[in-house]
Amino acid sequence: MNNTDQTVPHVLKKLARLLGTQLKNTRLDIPPQFGSGYCTGFVFNEHIRMLISNYELNEDVIIQNPDVNPAKKMIFFKFQNIFSRAETSSPHKCPSVLIGTSRINTDDIISIHTNTATINIEVDANYLKGLFTGSQESSVLKGLLQNKRPLLFEQIMYPSLQKNVDEILSGPANETFKLFFLRVKAEELICRLLMELENRDEKQLHALNNHDIQAIYRVKQQILEHLETPPVIKELALDAHMSPTKLKRLFRQIFGDSIFSYYQQFRMQEAALLLSEDKLSVSAVGYRLGFTNLSHFSRIFKAHIGMNPKHYSLRKSN
Is-above-0.90 flag for pTM? Predict the structure, then answer.
């Protein structure tokens, strides 16, 4: 077995065999009869691995996951909406990363979905724990590193983190340094994301199950699809089949923000897009997003975007 074989995730080799094709320098190009796009992966060492997927398949593929090791407690980082695509300009599709413990998904069966545009990084929790000095005061950080309960967090990707992701996607010009470069960039991303999570003020974490996670994400989708209507907690809780207290608690735990604050953030991002991309007037945007008082809309917009909507619109048109 050569060095290249050792640095390619087994799941990628298995997918290549299933599709009847060969890997070329750790890259799997999807054969035209099965779809389009590519998938590439790297095993940096026994503690950390990465899979980059940007493809569309004609149908889902189910395979056994040969990389599952129950003895290891892995933490996953799943980056979504991070590829540059015109159709993902909507704030509903803004770049984000899911961070969770391996106990969220312990199945040894993987469904390779038809449409995937993600980067997945998996790292051994004990390896990460060994990189920190002193005790971790943050309950979020402690909960992740201990990896004893199913936990999931979502973090919005701000521009400097997206720049780091873009460097991973473009890779180094020199093949000699490729594996080293990508490992350093992956670990930098992980470090910066953990620093973000440490800033969250959650005092107590609650173990999650798949039912609760699905319910919370249905609530999130409902909020984002109706940005013109402020969320009503009681109604959302009823739809989620949980108490308002539990809904608010789990939503904040996953997204690091209250339901209304989260809604307002995306509402203003949508307003910014309508002003800059669709070239709508300030009043048209305000009314479309459910504001009856345009002065109130201007104040909220400025608080989130940093300038009032009229100045923002003028700046983007120049």
Answer: no
